[in-house]
Structures are given as structure tokens and as C-alpha cells.
């Protein structure tokens, strides 16, 4: 069930990225393409466009469906082994937070600067990623059997200390940021991905921080929206939040255009 949930969400996210592409593009670079779900979708949607996927995992690249118009490149960002001004569009779906986490903010900055260099004039960047919703407190209840999961998550999660406390009648009070990491990482506990998932956060940068990174790398932001509600996760795990709580969505979709020399 958790897998189905993840797949349905992923399809929705990929559709949102594809829907952003409204201009003719002859070449697209997919950063951190993984097994190529998006690259394949892009190739199917734009059959005359060259799609290049780059990823540092040889294993994931080997799982990519072979297609005539899709090439796979093994590479480790921030290095991007392409000629300047060679792409119309670069997409980065759920990869920037990994670069931020595993290589640090400077490497992320450098990645975005390199992306700006290899985009053609007026080229576009589309980013879809997790974001930090902030530390406002929220109250929630979880089924008794999930309490142990929360304790286990608190014990195993490495990026920062997770704190929560119990208020009246079984309500637990926690920051939105910690809540989002908990709810979106329960599935990983005791799975083969536990170590990796417990060492990185799903709430790496706020909207403002991401926007600044993108602007500092030479882009003008044209559009941002939030995507993917947490409702299905809450329903699946039997978690309730205090009535009237406004839960943030899980992802930000940001579109930006390479700034011209005179801008
Ligand atoms: C969460 S997955 C997202 C995969 C794909 N974009 C998707 O949405 O299905 C992140 C991907 O980024 C790749 N990745 C992480 N850091 C990288 C780096 N420094 N250089 C190249 N690829 C990287 C990982 O190998 C992984 O395939």
C-alpha cells in the first residue's frame, strides 16, 4: 500500500512537471534522473526532443527503459559534463535536496550556476523538491501502536533533534518541520533504505532559501506552487491533526528563466 501511495504521488508530481513545459524545446536535461521515470515520460510526450538524464548511480541508470531519444550519463553533480548553452530546459526533481544534504549548500549553488551556464538564452529551469515548512507548532494524535514508531524515528533521525511533548488528552505537540519529516519517513523505518532516509531531511530549505539560491545562480523566478498534500499519509497511518490546522503541502514546484545579460 505504501508503495502504491508513493507511485500515485510520483505520477502526479511528474505530470505537474510535464505540464510546465509549454514552449517548444529541442533538448532537455534531467538532473538526478534515477530510473528515468520523468525522462521516459518526457520522451513520450515530446517525441522529437532529445532528453538527457544524468545520475551518479550506475545501478539506477541501468534500470532506465531504453529509448531512442533518451541518453543516460553517469555523473556526479555539481560537475555537469556538457557544453555551455546546449539545453533549452533543465529539470531537477527531488535531487537538489540530496545535493544540499550530501555535498552542502556550496555544491548546490555551484550546481545551479553550472545549470545556468549550460542553458541556452532564455532557457528554463524547473525544480520540484521538498521544502521546510517552518517551525510553527501543531498538535496531532496517533494510534497507540504508532507511538513506538515516533519514538523510533526520534531515536534514529540524524539531521537534527526531534522534540515533541504531550499536552492534554493525548495530543502531541511538535513543529511542522519535524511532523513533515516524521510522516514522510515512517515507511523507511526498518527498511533497507533506513540508514539513508534517517540521515537526510525532507525539509532542507524554505521557499525563500531555495528562491535565493536560484536567483543567486542567475535565474529569474517565474512561477512557484506547492504540491502534494499530506492527507493520504495521515489517513494511511491513522494520524489526526487538530481541527482547523492548515497543513502545508510536501513539495514546491519552481519555474525559473535564465537571466539575460542585460537583466
Ligand atoms: C530522490 S531521487 C529522485 C529521482 C528522480 N528525479 C525522480 O524524481 O524519480 C534522487 C536522485 O538523485 C541522484 N543524485 C543525488 N545526488 C547526486 C549527485 N550529486 N549527482 C548526480 N546524481 C545525484 C540519486 O542517485 C537519485 O537517483
Provide structural commentary.
The chain has 263 residues and is α/β, with parallel strands linked by helices. Helix content is 38%, strand content 25%. It has helices spanning 2-19, 37-45, 58-62, 96-103, 105-118, 144-156, 176-185, 194-198, 207-216, 231-237, and strands at 27-31, 50-55, 70-74, 87-93, 119-130, 137-141, 164-166, 172-175, 219-227, 240-241, 251-258. The strands form 2 sheets. It has a 7-stranded mixed sheet with strand order 3-2-1-4-5-11-9, sandwiched between helices. Strands 7-8-6-10 form a 4-stranded antiparallel sheet. α4 (96-103) crosses α5 (105-118). The longest helix has 18 residues, at 2-19. The model has no long low-confidence stretch (mean pLDDT 93). The site of S-adenosylmethionine has 19 residues, from α2 and α4. S-adenosylmethionine is lined by residues 32-34, 37-38, 55-57, 60, 75-77, 93-95, 98-99, 102-103.
Short description:
The protein has 263 residues and is an alpha/beta fold.
Could you give the topology of this structure?
Blueprint: H1 2-19, E1 27-31, H2 37-45, E2 50-55, H3 58-62, E3 70-74, E4 87-93, H4 96-103, H5 105-118, E5 119-130, E6 137-141, H6 144-156, E7 164-166, E8 172-175, H7 176-185, H8 194-198, H9 207-216, E9 219-227, H10 231-237, E10 240-241, E11 251-258
Parallel strand pairs: 1-2, 1-4, 2-3, 4-5
Antiparallel strand pairs: 5-11, 6-8, 6-10, 7-8, 9-11
Helix pairs in contact: 4-5
Amino acid at each position: 500500500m505504501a508503495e502504491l501511495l508513493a507511485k500515485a504521488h510520483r505520477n502526479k508530481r511528474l505530470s505537474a512537471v510535464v505540464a510546465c513545459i509549454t514552449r517548444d524545446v529541442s533538448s532537455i536535461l534531467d538532473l538526478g534522473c534515477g530510473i528515468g521515470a520523468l525522462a521516459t515520460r518526457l520522451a513520450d510526450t515530446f517525441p522529437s526532443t532529445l532528453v538527457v538524464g544524468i545520475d551518479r548511480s550506475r545501478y539506477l541508470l541501468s534500470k532506465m527503459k531504453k529509448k531512442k531519444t533518451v541518453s543516460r550519463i553517469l555523473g556526479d553533480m555539481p560537475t555537469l559534463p556538457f557544453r555551455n548553452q546546449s539545453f533549452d530546459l533543465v529539470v531537477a526533481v527531488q535531487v537538489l535536496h540530496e545535493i544540499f544534504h550530501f555535498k552542502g549548500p556550496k555544491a548546490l549553488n555551484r550546481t545551479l550556476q553550472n545549470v545556468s551556464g549550460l542553458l541556452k538564452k532564455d532557457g528554463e529551469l524547473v525544480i520540484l523538491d521538498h521544502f521546510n515548512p517552518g517551525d510553527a507548532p501543531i498538535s496531532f494524535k496517533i494510534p497507540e501502536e504508532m507511538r513506538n514508531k515516533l519514538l523510533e524515528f526520534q531515536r534514529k533521525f540524524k539531521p537534527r533533534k526531534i522534540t515533541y511533548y504531550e499536552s492534554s488528552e493525548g495530543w502531541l505537540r511538535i513543529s511542522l518541520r519535524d511532523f513533515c519529516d516524521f510522516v514522510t519517513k515512517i515507511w523507511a523505518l526498518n527498511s533497507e533504505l533506513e540508514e539513508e532516509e534517517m540521515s537526510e531531511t525532507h525539509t532542507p530549505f524554505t521557499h525563500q532559501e531555495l528562491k535565493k539560491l536560484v536567483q543567486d545562480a542567475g535565474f529569474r523566478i517565474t512561477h512557484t506552487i506547492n504540491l502534494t498534500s499530506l492527507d493520504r499519509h495521515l489517513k494511511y497511518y491513522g494520524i489526526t491533526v487538530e481541527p482547523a490546522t492548515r497543513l502545508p503541502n510536501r513539495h514546491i514546484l519552481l519555474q525559473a528563466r535564465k537571466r539575460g545579460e542585460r537583466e
